[in-house]
Amino acid sequence: MLFTRRDHDRLATILREAAQREVIPRFRALGKDGVRQKKSAIDVVTDADEQAERRICAELAAAFPGALLIGEEAMAADERLLAKLPEAELAFVIDPVDGTLNFASDLPLFAVMAAVLIRGEVVAAVIHDPNVDDTAMALRGEGAWLEFASGERRDLRVATPGPLHDMTGMVSWKYFNEPQRRQIPGAFSQFADVSSLRCCGQEYRLAAAGHCHFLMYGRLNPWDHAPGSLLYAEAGGHARLLHDAPYRAGAVANGLLCAPDRESWQAIRGAFFGQR
């Protein structure tokens, strides 16, 4: 089965329209009942998440009949959906508002994103920024690019690697298991800068465009990392699980590291965990 450029453009249009109709109108306008806590005070869902996911799934079901649709909010209700992902002929994993905590905090740093999988392999990615109305996109084997509302396109390329003390990165360390959770922040001083945007989609966009060198994550929800890992890889980067295996959507693993090339990947992993 092929997922064509035309299919890809249709997916991008569906996400953009959902952002315009369901997400942006609710930004800074949620009201006191528009935000609800899920598992903790920093794990929340909003009306925008739920309404955007409903719209995206309805549009995808119409455009791609029979496809498996896995949204973040649907998964929260039925975790059994994830088991269907490896065998599905065509599947979409959807994050209707990535960076929900930022969104609920009135911070304009969030994204609407999705990945396309064919029998478990990620073949396409779309990460849309609703605030500036542009979209980072990738197709397996065809590269990664940024597409503006005007239709103009700009190729994406990861940063040139350098010595550790010159490299910058984004690290989400809070979801690692102990003792790694305590260990990771102790290595930050070996780099020029380490930070977090609290939004995987925006971090992947930043790294794929060459504006930071590496990304590292502990929790690997497919709606967070299936789009971004393909975007980064198609921009020329090296994305691998920390035990040096390829990333697979739905994989149960503790850690994903993205770096400009294999040599810098090994050096960064070594700085954090003493592995080369």
Commentary on this structure:
It is built from 8 helices and 14 strands. The chain folds into 2 domains: 5-155, 2-Layer Sandwich (Fructose-1,6-Bisphosphatase, Chain A, domain 1), CATH 3.30.540.10; 164-273, D-Maltodextrin-Binding Protein, domain 2, CATH 3.40.190. It is an alpha+beta fold and 276 residues long. Helices cover 31% and strands 27% of the residues. The strands form 3 sheets. The chain has a 7-stranded mixed sheet, sandwiched between helices. Strands 11-10-12-14-13 form a 5-stranded mixed sheet, sandwiched between helices. It has a two-stranded antiparallel sheet with strand order 1-2.
Set down the secondary structure blueprint.
Layout: H1 5-23, E1 35-40, E2 43-46, H2 47-63, E3 68-71, H3 72-77, E4 91-98, H4 100-104, E5 111-118, E6 121-129, E7 134-139, E8 143-148, E9 153-155, E10 168-172, H5 180-183, E11 193-195, H6 200-208, E12 214-217, H7 222-234, E13 238-241, E14 256-259, H8 262-273
Parallel strand pairs: 3-4, 10-11, 10-12
Antiparallel strand pairs: 1-2, 4-5, 5-6, 6-7, 7-8, 8-9, 12-14, 13-14
Amount of beta strand:
25-35%
How many H/I helical runs? 8
Which descriptor suits the 3D outline? globular
Per DSSP E runs of 2 or more residues, the count of β-strands stands at 14
Q: Spans with pLDDT under 50 lasting ≥5 residues? A: none
Report the span from N to C terminus. 38 Å
Number of domains: 2
Q: Topology as H/E string?
A: HEEHEHEHEEEEEEHEHEHEEH
CATH class of the largest domain: Alpha Beta
- Assign a percent range to the helix content: 25-40%
Structural class: alpha+beta
Strand order of the largest sheet: 3-4-5-6-7-8-9
| Overall mean confidence score, pLDDT | 93
Rg, nearest Å:
18 Å
CATH architecture label name of the largest domain? 2-Layer Sandwich
CATH superfamily of the largest domain: Fructose-1,6-Bisphosphatase, subunit A, domain 1
CATH topology of the largest domain: Fructose-1,6-Bisphosphatase, Chain A, domain 1
Describe the biggest sheet? 7 strands, mixed
